[in-house]
Amino acid sequence: MKAIIGGTGVDSLPGITSEKSVIKTPYGDVELFVGRGKDAFLVFLPRHGSLHSTPPHLINYRANISALQQLGVDEVICIYAVGSVSDSLRPGEVGVLSDFVDFTGGGRQHTFFTGGEQKVQHVSMDKAFDAELNAKLLQRDRSLKQAGVYVCTNGPRLETPAEIRFFKTMGFDVVGMTCATEVALAREAGIKVAALAYSINWAAGVGGKDEVAFIDDATIASLRDAMTILCVEVLGA
Ligand code: HPA
Predict the structure, then answer these.
(1) What is the CATH number of the domain that holds 132?
(2) To test the ligand 1 pocket, which listed residue (86, 200, 220) has its Cβ within 8 A of the most ligand atoms?
């Protein structure tokens, strides 16, 4: 079984009929959608809940990934809205991520391996993103960029210009608030991951603007639709 995890507004599967389900996990209930494509099942999971009511730092990432695991998901494509820190991905562009840095500060429930019955295990993040799945995405859509390294902040506030200057100096390319926690847990669960990032703004203090400005809603909606269709094609649903 394959899955797509999406953020704000990525809540439907064009061309696929899907049914809402609630999955019970040891970490809480998860609402998701199971769709039937041409020849495969596909799970769609809106990470912030179906009404986008959960901010990034309060998302129940463990429940989300545990629900996918219960459904037998072995491959997932995650879609992330990001701010652009470097030129590798500019506002309005879509690309694949190569790696991530976790700057959330450690306050989230970010691991399944909490000791005791859950054991202590140090899962490798040498290859957080799956090379084969990334290659399939890049092959299917030649306009995709190499979006580079995602730095994950805790949010929900946006960054200061000084924080973004620091991230740029460190060589990070895009900034967001969800990827590191979600991908690390998916890897702990043995799920292969690829990530599509789409930039909706220049991060604070870059791009020659005084204030963070977002691209328009219609452009965001069409980027999301195109990414969802691409994911469905690549996951073979
Ligand atoms: N910062 C953090 N997360 C984001 C941004 C940003 O500028 N844009 C979209 N998600």
Answers:
(1) 3.40.50.1580
(2) 200
